[in-house]
Amino acid sequence: MGEFTENPFASSHSLDTNPFDDPSPKQTAQHDAHLDDISRRERDLERRERELNQRAEHIRTHGRNNWPPFYPLIYHAISEEIPEASRPLITRLYQLWLVLLGTLIINMVACIFILIAGSAMVARTSVEIRVHYRPLSFLLWYRPIYNGYMKEQALYYYFYFFFGGFHLLFSVYMIIGIPSTGSAGLIQMIQMYAQGHWAAGILGTIATVGWTVQGLGNAFYYRQIWNHHSAAGHTMDKAKAELASHGAKAYFTRG
Questions:
Q1: 79: which residues sit within 8 A by CB, 6+ positions away?
Q2: Measured between alpha carbons, how far is 185 from 107 in angstroms, rounded to an integer?
Q3: Each residue of 194-217: pLDDT tens digit?
Q4: How far apart are CA 227 and CA 223, in angstroms?
């Protein structure tokens, strides 16, 4: 009978708080945090949507090509195309190629100052070197080794060894700085300091350091790549077979 004598309204747990009271500071903080989280997620979704739209527009206009950024002609993505173990090496080579670009620009400016100081041929030659050597260096030694590590095919490596070796010799030539050759290297730099042309001398010093840094860096990785090529079993016979099968054009492209 006891169960019939208990007051069914005796429990007041549901009435501990007045639902019409203002929320407590803790509840307010939780609610604000929840709203901030929703707002953050909305911003993140909007950002992703913009990125996807930009990527879709880029693909519509240029295909998958993403390099160079100002006028995409090829697809270049070390993190996507190069095996993880080889990414640091290719990244360093790309950075050295960027150092080469900067060095070419500084070398050209230095040669303009040398021209002002009295050398008539050096500036024009430097401009020609900068205009022609920049795309050639990318196509003839950086791109082949990029493709070589992406595909592990022998002919890429032999392209790189030939033209990369030429680049090393060219770097030594530019470091020396023979007058009227388009280089602001050592000889030109010393002459500028000796004649009191400090601006040309300082720019020549920077150019010489740039040629030296990228030259030594490329020589270091040239040896590493040679060791990798030998360990992978790439041979000239394999390279000839690949050339006969795919043709030379394939070795300047991604596909």
A1: 87
A2: 8
A3: 999 999 999 999 999 999 999 999
A4: 6
What phi and psi, each to the nearest 5 degrees, are found at residue 21?
A: -70, 155
d(CA 61, CA 6): 79
Backbone angles phi, psi at 74, to 5 degrees: -140, 165
228: exposed, middle or buried (Cβ count in 10 Å: 0-12, 13-18, 19+): middle
Say how far apart CA 170 and CA 158 lie, in whole Å: 18
Among 186-190, 230-234, 245-249, the minimum mean pLDDT is found in 245-249
Highest mean pLDDT pick, 11-20, 36-45, 231-240: 231-240
Q: Which residue has the tokens 């050209």?
A: 108
Q: Within 13 Å and on the Cβ side, how many CA atoms surround 241?
A: 7
The H helix count followed by the E strand count for the chain is 10, 0
Q: Are 222 and 168 in contact (CB under 8 A)?
A: yes
Q: What is the pLDDT of residues 46-84, one digit of tens each?
A: 887 787 677 656 565 556 788 888 888 888 999 989 999
Structure tokens given for 130: 């900068």
Residue 186 DSSP SS3: helix
Question: Are the C-beta atoms of residues 124 and 183 closer than 8 Å to each other?
Answer: no
Q: Give the largest Cα separation in the chain, rounded.
A: 120
Q: Is there a contact between 215 and 175 (Cβ–Cβ < 8 Å)? A: yes
* 3-state SS class at 74: strand
**3-class secondary-structure state, position 178:** coil
User: The tokens 């009271």 sit on which residue?
Assistant: 21
CA torsion sign for 105, 107, 113, 114 is negative
Among the listed residues 242, 126, 253, 99, the one whose alpha carbon sits nearest the alpha carbon of residue 184:
126
